[in-house]
Amino acid sequence: MRLILLGPPGAGKGTQAQFLMDKYNIVQLSTGDILRQAIANKTPTGLAAKEIMARGDLVSDEIVNAIISERLDEKDCENGFILDGFPRTIAQAEALGQMLAEKDMPLDAVVELKVEADILVKRILNRAKESGQARADDNEDVIRNRLNVYNEITQPLVEHYSALGLLKTVDGMGEIEQVKSEIKLALEG
Ligand code: AMP
Questions:
Q1: What is the pTM of this model?
Q2: 78 or 122, which is more confident?
Q3: Which residue from 63, 65, 109, 138 puts its CA 20 to 30 A from 37's CA?
Q4: Virtual CA dihedral for 103, 65, 4, 126, nearest 10 degrees?
């Protein structure tokens, strides 16, 4: 199973990715996690990404495309994967399409988690409080910027994948278990 999880920050992509990993025995590829790890390791990529991420802006397509292309070649992706937080721009989606065609790894579906914008800021701030590990980009101004970036730059991917016949839209407003079963239904009918 090869999936993309699409949705604004705070929509629950990470939580639902966890369930999909277990269900289909596939790996989660989160560009956000990979970049945070690169920052922690002070790699050149991490150094290039740090300030951009702290503002809630997007890291360059070139950097994230390279990260994903390399990651897809690792053995644990053979059984399938969930892309979480990638692609985020039309250019990334096009690069991904090309990569997956070259690697002979066609996508099965793109699951869009639809959540009302108003509750996202609250959700993200709660997540930070409950985990006790606020991320560098978990303050209200930066969250609002991340949401604007999503609406302006990432939202057009919905249309892109709908035109490719891959889009499954799921209501992400409910409880975790309810969203889970809706995703299951969307993927298995
Ligand atoms: P996330 O953990 O998915 O919320 O990502 C955190 C931050 O990492 C984003 O606000 C961006 O600065 C950066 N990032 C993650 N994935 C991408 C991507 N596909 N393209 C550009 N920047 C990204």
A1: 0.94
A2: 78
A3: 109
A4: 150
